[in-house]
Amino acid sequence: MIVWLDGVLMALEQARISPLDRGLTVGDGVFETLRVYDGVPFAFSRHYTRLRIAGDALGIVVPHRDTLRAAAVAVLEANNLRDARLRITVTGGEGPPGSSRVAATPVAVVLAVPFTPSGATAEVVVCPWTRNERSATAGLKTISYAANVRALAYAEGHGANEALFANTSGNLCEATGSNVFVVIDGELRTPPPSAGCLLGVTRALILDVTRAAAMRVGETDIALDDLRRADEAFLSSSTREVQAITSIDGWPLPHAPGPISQRVAALYADLVTQDMDP
């Protein structure tokens, strides 16, 4: 595998980051995961904008868009990858242990691996931990993923593929690596930004294409109890795209995938074929 580290292409075995890198010592870093179709990273501009927003919030200077775009292309070409999963990571750089912000040079890494598709459907469970919608990193895509790792392990330990988080208000927030949409009374709903969820690129594109198609769609708080009233539901992310949910906590949904989920999936697929940087 060939990776890009701070402007240099090198073999993965040669890539080295300091033990004092703040990404390692305090989880101080941001990242984006992009889907690559036929050698082209999808929605690169939207992903880069979100990376910059998270970097600005944490005080991490993210490399210029053109630099990271060129790095992505170089990594894909060096590894001869056409259908891939691309990750861009920027850490706070090397500094003394501790949480205090220090003047350090950020470290940027770009790598890609062959894409492995998710299943057509997923079973989900609600994990016993909550998201704090008022936390300092709410809505930011940071590398501090320990809570996600633990929640996903909980899901897998209960025979599911993904875990859902509620927030401190008892409303649906998000999954460990994806956003959640549910269909209740014929309306497509997803938690609003105030719920504390990460505002996924795929989530935003789904809202765009469904509104353009005059579908009934809203960003609204969804109580956990309302999940049992859902006719259908799905997960969305760059790598999952639109993945129907078959059951929640063992409770089977009436349709998986349902007609609305199938229409959303078709609209999203059309978007991918028409515009690689929407």
Describe this structure in words.
The protein has 278 residues and is an alpha+beta fold. Helix content is 26%, strand content 31%. It has six helices and 15 strands. Strands 7, 8, 9, 10, 11, 12, 13, 14 and 15 form a nine-stranded mixed sheet that branches. 40% of the residues are buried.
Summarize the entry for a quick read.
The protein has 278 residues and is of the alpha+beta class.
Runs with pLDDT <50, length 5+? Answer: none
- Proportion of strand residues: 25-35%
Radius of gyration: 19 Å
Order of helices and strands: EEHEEHHEEEHEEEEHEEEEH
What's the story with the biggest beta sheet?
9 strands, mixed
- Measured distance between first and last alpha carbons: 29 Å
What is the approximate shape? globular
Query: Average pLDDT, to the nearest integer?
Result: 97
Number of helices: 6
Q: Could you tell me the number of beta strands? A: 15
Structural class: alpha+beta
